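Assess this one:

_____
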Amino acid sequence: PLLVIPADAAASLFPGLRGQSPYAGLLPQMSPAARVQFGFLAHVDGRVRLQTVHPDSNPWLSDLLWRVNATLGAPLLLGSQFGPYSRTHTVQDTLDEACRIGVDGILLEDHWISGTALRNGRGCKHESPPQK
């Protein structure tokens, strides 16, 4: 998984981080406090593939992360591919795959589609996953 976080929030979660990681090229170690709260986002060794976002270079995503923080209490998004055999080449492919595997929600460009909306069939042309 890929953790996307504002650059100015990264220092408290990743004390060993030197500089920024705008291209997800670093695997910093989470702080012990961050592991308690967000350890489920990390690899077994406590490292996370990290992308930092700065408001000067990506104002839209930086703003989105701070809005997520206001709503959920943490300015971060988790990104992941659907899997090595996924065939997500179009928006509809992505929605169908999200429906199939039962995600909590999906962000496509500047559109958020909740898992509830996916399960209720909006955006899915195939059957929805079983309820969790």
In short: The mean pLDDT is 82. The beta strands are 2-6, 49-53, 77-79, 105-108, 111-114. The two ends are 22 Å apart (CA to CA).
